[in-house]
């Protein structure tokens, strides 16, 4: 046992920004644990045990360089988050477990292939094919473009502290792993393209969603796109941008999901349009919402801006990249400002603003812990905004890096004007409220699409869809194979002389082929 | 050096098997006392061997011999215990200890006969793993077949006797093939001792070598339940009582795997297998059998049959990894043998407890089983998770090393089969876990049926024993899950004792 | 000229194969079991020819004696519900 | 050479009865014939024209047949008989439930 | 699969196996030329080592006595398996005996069968025969009882309890002699030297005659139990 313990400790590496990322992970988990104090009612003890195990395994995932402990910890993360989902519904647990397990099996295969090809440590891998296999491996677990289908349904259905953990940090572990794998100077073009696709697709879906949680899930996809973009471009600056982005987005998204939990309990619904008078009902929560959404939008003086500026400055110079990057920033600005527009601007009367605010400020007895959690979250976002090199200047490269605020102010004003113009004359992209997303609905729409082409109208009932379609096909095929081999006892016993004669004549058979 | 404790490992269970019918005549109450006495002497024996030769076990030079009847090896029968057989005997005895305590709590009628057959299986399994003589191995294999054949029909139900007949058909053919193989080696080489045969097996002409290897391989593949002959295995797991299936799946399949390693690596020598270019064929058969096992498991509508099919899948995988003949291959293979033994025995033990009130172990009767006794069902789920290969449990470590072995040996098809296996395992296990948690509204006649269904556990304390054993298995899996490096030394040493056959021959014949 | 034993041996071998074939061909179990016992008696004779006295005695007692007795008792227990 | 032919013919006959015949008792008979053929081959093969391996009290040592395969066959015959007995009891047991010993009617054996 | 297709498939597989076996049998040379390691030693020094004239019993009960122990456990296992499967709750009705003439003749013949079986058992090391063959003849007596006089008669003469006792007694003599071998001369199942007398006499081959006796009793009682439990007329159980 002792041998195992030393080997486990020896496999930790504490250089560059990974300890910082581990600390941020720990802080975020504590924030969510704080927020869960009165959100989770029953089995509270088990909830905190699982969060503790999750905490330890995230730290191990980020810091270790040995393949075995890396995979051991990451699968522990999956296991704990699967059971954390049990507080919402067992169906979710099943789906999440199956998808995450397939992802981790591919990752296991990829990691062992890397191990077998000589990369015994988790370090920069220079063969592009292996990088590609590893990216596919971690794709399902951290929502790369094609493999992100499970992210919105599960993140929106999960209880809010759990979805805070999931969106805030679990999804980013894959990218932290990529930070170690992708060599800094070369980057990875495929990741770059995937990042672009994610940003565009996530942004477009976020704009079209009316439900706050679904919007947040899709915005996670688009923000992850930015991180993938940064890692894809390669270069010291881009990697630092990715790290900063991970931290900023972590804080912002955790606070946003906790606030969505509070607002859902406050207004009893998740649709953005009915959060009327939020500033007066929950002033502090709305303050947190405003700051996090600004950071999400990447406007100046916010955490998002620093990260986005780093990433855009790391791009290769040229008009096309400038325009494209402007478009990305615009998309993220639109979908974040649209939510602020709906919550705070649409038909609000700010007549006697001051005294209404005073009256609201002194009615805070109910959600004390949640408010505390959000304050820590916003504090985090502000710190990243004003000290990009983080307190105790861990990212020392950024200490004297000028973010030329003036250009930032100019850009943000343009963004705000454009966003207001677009939101105003498209009536705030008001979209019909879609009912909750679920994987069954995805499969059903996919199958309707397939069967519509074949003109055979097959009726599915959505909630039993996995059992009816998915399992029956497997059951029937394996039944056919089984019946093919299991005809009757004569054939089964016949295998013995057949196999014996094949073995006996193996010399001739082998020389024949 | 000579060691009488080895022979005691075989005589003590044999003695208890002979005593029990005699005690039944006098008074049946003493029976359980003798059962416990027998198994405790066995454990005491094994621990005293471990204590005395601990340093030899650590540095891998453990080599205990015993010449029966005082005759030197080529003439008489000799027993050999090196690191490999020591490791296997240790885990087999531990698992048998768990199962016998479980069966004290589980078996109701005909308890005397059950213990007789059970102790014969213990004696025969120890004998088969210790013997250094071909014909002696054949006698112990026949002993295992008859005892387990009779135990499969223990419940005297319609499916039970069908399963036993099918089981015996296959295994008696395999037994007669082994007899034929042993006699063939005797006629060509003049001796029956494994070391002597190994010594000059290579000198034989390649046609005869192929003849003997073909006979032995067919017989062993039948016994292990690999692709062409896997038809008897699920049925015999399905219709026999829980302790018997635990023995069959946990212990017997491992003993035949050990005999396979002993025969192919020590007696016949792996170079001859490569010279006859059989190893590629065997790896493909093993992988196809593993693939088939997992595919059949998908359509199994009966929990025990499902576990039988998944057991075929795993044995196929172990068989393929070992056939790679690399250091990592053996490490992953033997670690998975240990993991699979405890997982499978634990699963069947839990199944026995969960299904005791259900009418049949069909899929629809599994409804609501989990809610009736939650703690055992949680243990059941943990074991299933370990079968899939989830991290905190031993299954993950063994899956990891097997995959590493496959990838180092560049056989990507093998790695694909392992991944395919664990993915299909998720699907068919999840289906049963979900069914276990479904609500069940017990109607009037269900309750009456349950009462009428004579639960075997009449007395409360027996229920305690049964649940205790299930937790014991889960505890073993979790402890070794974290501390699998703890198994590192015995695994390394047993690989080393497989690899160099010269040391085995020199020590047996020279000594 | 082949000596007497070799002729006897060939004769017995032919008789042996004949018994086995008859025992397998006949539908009625009783007849096939009687042929099985004659099969083992001929086998005893062959063993004697091959100078294996112990095995011959064992085959005679177990093959002809015990197996036939057990097969007969098995048939007497079998209840032919519907077939023949 | 002649013994090898006989062995192959008998072995195939036993296998035929075991695999093709649908009557369970016939299968056990086939099994018996198969094992008997193996024992016959062993004894026929080990017969080197020597005497029975028993020392006469008076005369001195003469050429013996090899005692070891004969001892092994003896054990084999007894094992074969006990396995056949076990199989027959199982067939009797099965007959209690299904009233027939025809393999096709007992479809339980096929899956 | 269609009936004829299956038949042709089976026939072709059999022909293929026959050819395969024939090919491989050609390679096995005639036995005379082969290396005879163990058997030369046993033939030459069998008499002096074990003191038994019959070399086959020497091999069976001394050189490879452990196999015979395994062998008798096989029978023990088969017996307990069969009794387990065929045990009936109801007391079975006795099977009808044969006619009077047969009963009378067997009345006369049975003692001679018993004498013959005892002869075969005890003279294992002098003449062909030994524990197994003698034991089976012993079982034949019980079979005769239950066939000729009806299984009730056999039940009264040697009830299954007596038979189990005899069987375990036989097993214990065998095991006991083995353990005595350890105590006295250090090896399990060693042929005990102090028992040997002049070769050729009844108690000449060390512990072999006693082992023979133990095995004979065990096999006889065991097979009698097998036959008794198979012969009794059975009715569908009621429990």
Automatic annotation (TrEMBL), chain A:
Keywords: Cell membrane, Membrane, Oxidoreductase, Transmembrane, Transmembrane helix. GO terms for molecular function: NADH dehydrogenase (ubiquinone) activity; oxidoreductase activity. Its main location: membrane. The chain crosses the membrane at residues 20-40, 45-63, 69-90, 97-117, 129-151, 163-184, 190-207, 214-231, 237-263, 284-303, 323-345, 366-387, 407-424, 489-509. It is a multi-pass membrane protein. Pfam families: Proton_antipo_M. It comes from the Bacteria. The keyword Repressor does not apply. PANTHER family: HYDROGENASE-4 COMPONENT F, NADH-UBIQUINONE_PLASTOQUINONE. This is Complex I subunit 5 family protein. It comes from Halanaerobium polyolivorans.
TrEMBL record, chain D:
The chain crosses the membrane at residues 6-24, 36-54, 74-94. Gene3D superfamilies: 1.10.287.3510. It comes from the Bacteria. The keyword Membrane applies. It is found in: Cell membrane. Its main location: membrane. Keywords: Cell membrane, Membrane, Transmembrane, Transmembrane helix. GO terms for cellular component: plasma membrane. The keyword Magnesium does not apply. It is a multi-pass membrane protein. InterPro entries: CPA3_antiporter_subunitC (IPR050601), NUOK/Mnh_C1-like (IPR039428). Pfam families: Oxidored_q2 (PF00420). Belongs to the CPA3 antiporters (TC 2.A.63) subunit C family. This is Cation:proton antiporter subunit C. It comes from Halanaerobium polyolivorans. The lineage of its organism: Bacteria, Bacillati, Bacillota, Clostridia, Halanaerobiales.
TrEMBL record, chain E:
GO terms for cellular component: plasma membrane. Residues 10-93 form the MrpA C-terminal/MbhE domain. It is found in: Cell membrane. It is a multi-pass membrane protein. The chain crosses the membrane at residues 69-86, 106-126, 132-150, 171-189, 209-231. InterPro entries: CPA3_antiporter_subunitB (IPR050622), MnhB (IPR007182), MrpA_C/MbhE (IPR046806). Residues 101-223 form the Na+/H+ antiporter MnhB subunit-related protein domain. Keywords: Cell membrane, Membrane, Transmembrane, Transmembrane helix. Belongs to the CPA3 antiporters (TC 2.A.63) subunit B family. This is Sodium:proton antiporter. It comes from Halanaerobium polyolivorans.
